[in-house]
Amino acid sequence: MSYTYNKEVYSITSPLQSISVNKRNVVVTDKIGSKLFTFNNIGESKRFLTWLYQS
């Protein structure tokens, strides 16, 4: 799966092992490793989480 944010494409490989959220920061651990996503506001991080849970 891939997600585009601020003209950058982030790749996430299934299966997800964990998701950690702290306001504007989201850490996703997939089978490749951990990735930190930092968003400009809480609304953007919520949209990302919605996309992540639906994928």
Give structural attributes.
55 residues; alpha+beta; three-stranded antiparallel sheet; 24% helix; globular; Bro-N domain-containing protein
Description:
The chain is an alpha+beta fold. The chain is built from one helix and five strands. The strands form two sheets. A three-stranded antiparallel β-sheet has the order 3-4-5, with no helix packed on it. It has a two-stranded antiparallel sheet with strand order 1-2. The longest helix is centred in the last third of the chain and has 13 residues, at 42-54. 4% of the residues are buried. The mean pLDDT is 90. This is Bro-N domain-containing protein.
Report the principal-axis shape.
globular
Strand order across the largest sheet: 3-4-5
- Alpha plus pi helix count: 1
Rg, alpha carbons: 10 Å
* Strand-pairing-aware structural class: alpha+beta
Strand percentage: 35-45%
For the largest beta-sheet, the strand count, sense and barrel status come to: 3 strands, antiparallel
- The stretches of 5 or more residues where confidence is low (pLDDT under 50) are none
Mean pLDDT: 90
Helix content: 10-25%
